[in-house]
Amino acid sequence: MSEGPLVDEFMRHLQASLDEAMDIEDKIERHDRILQLEIAIQEAIIFKNRYKELVSHGIDPLVLVAQKEGQEAPPPATKSQALTLGGSNCEKCGSALDPDLDFCPACGAIVK
Questions:
Q1: Which residues are CB-neighbours of 8 under 8 A, at least 6 positions away?
Q2: Which residues pair with 96 in a beta bridge?
Q3: pTM for the full model?
Q4: 3-state class (DSSP) for residue 32
Q5: Which residues contact 84 (CB under 8 A, 6 or more apart)?
Q6: Which of 60, 5, 14, 1 is nearest to 41 (CA)?
Q7: Which residue has the higher pLDDT, 98 or 83?
């Protein structure tokens, strides 16, 4: 059992903080705080999706592995790729699926 809050709880905290930030009177301070919180939420989503992706491939995401000598490092995932890593892909066309939809937004195939 975990010793502290989970990523989902942290994301809920960030969302609640974002709601509270809407009440900041100073326009610049409000804008800066909202931007800070939105970036934190995006990073939490990226972390959660990447963690799930590694676990699904049987890799312990918390173990650091040294790169082998002479081996080139793969390019880092783009922001949009990282945000969708935890999702699934359409069996028909391979496009990223939206978990809230029961069909593929790219080709219209029904998702099982």
A1: 48
A2: 89
A3: 0.54
A4: helix
A5: 49, 96
A6: 14
A7: 98
Instruction: Write out the two tokens for 2.
Output: 């975990």
pLDDT tens digits, one per residue of 57-74: 888 887 766 777 887 776
Measure the CA–CA gap between 10 and 37, rounded to whole angstroms: 11
Distance, CA of 53 to CA of 10 (rounded, Å):
19
The number of residues making up the chain comes to: 112
pLDDT tens-digit series, residues 19-40: 999 999 999 999 999 999 999 9
Which distant-in-sequence residues (6+ apart) come within 8 Å of 86 by Cβ?
48, 49, 50, 52, 53
Task: Select from 14, 6, 12, 16 the least CA-distant residue to 36.
Answer: 14
- Residue 96 phi, psi (nearest 5): -65, 135
